[in-house]
Amino acid sequence: MPDLYRVSRRLILRDHVEAGAIRSFTQNSGWTFLGDIARDPERGVFYEAKWESGDGGSVHYVVDEFADVHYMVVANEDPEAAEEVRSRIEGALAVWTVDDMLDDCYVHVYPAGWAKSLLRLGAGAPRQAVEAVVAHVVFSSEHQDTAVRRAAVRAMAYAAWPEFKEALARLAHADEDPRIAWEAGRVLEELEKAGVSEP
């Protein structure tokens, strides 16, 4: 379901970024480790660790088996402080940029790779809509393969952009797969309940 309360873009870590590198970075940053957070399989979160970042905010490391990614995300009421920490993480650890994730989407022809790249793109989407990302996810939502359409719905849920409401409504009412129609309807309902407005 949409995660409407995150502050920064989820910084999707490259596969080669290991726990030791994250531990060293957080220690060198002077952050205080606050411990592990309870699993939330419904959100796809199978492991989460949290640090206090010293500026009234927190940094979270999440293993998301739903999207098959691991990422870091910043929470802070001060947008400038959140941006500074996010920028520091991006500079220290190998993360997927939005352009890299989008480029990766275009190299996959087979459904399995296409679906995986879509989920990564949705999970790593910035807080504000990017036209090229919207276009690719909506295009993918019309794919003949069920796995690709389902991944598109989940990418829309991760991004939680109002620009996806029309595509979600179409899928909820017209997709031939009842499971996809149900998921699309549920995501749309959550966006509307949270007051996500029109673009």
Please tell me about this protein's structure.
With 199 residues, this protein is α+β, with helices and mostly antiparallel strands. It has 8 helices and 5 strands. The protein has a 5-stranded antiparallel beta sheet. Helix 6 runs parallel beside helix 8 and helix 7 packs antiparallel against helix 8 (178-193). The protein starts with 10 loop residues before the first strand and ends in a 6-residue tail after the last helix. 37% of the residues are buried. The model has no long low-confidence stretch (mean pLDDT 91).
Low-confidence stretches: none
Tell me the number of helical segments per DSSP (H or I, 4 or more residues long).
8
Order of helices and strands: EHEEEEHHHHHHH
Number of DSSP strand runs: 5
Q: What is the overall silhouette?
A: globular
| Helix percentage range | 40-55%
In percent, how much strand structure appears in the residues?
Answer: 15-25%
Looking across the biggest beta sheet, what order are the strands in? Answer: 1-5-4-3-2
Rg for CA atoms: 17 Å
Mean pLDDT: 91
Terminal residue distance: 20 Å
**What class would the helix/strand composition place it in?**
alpha+beta
Largest sheet: 5 strands, antiparallel
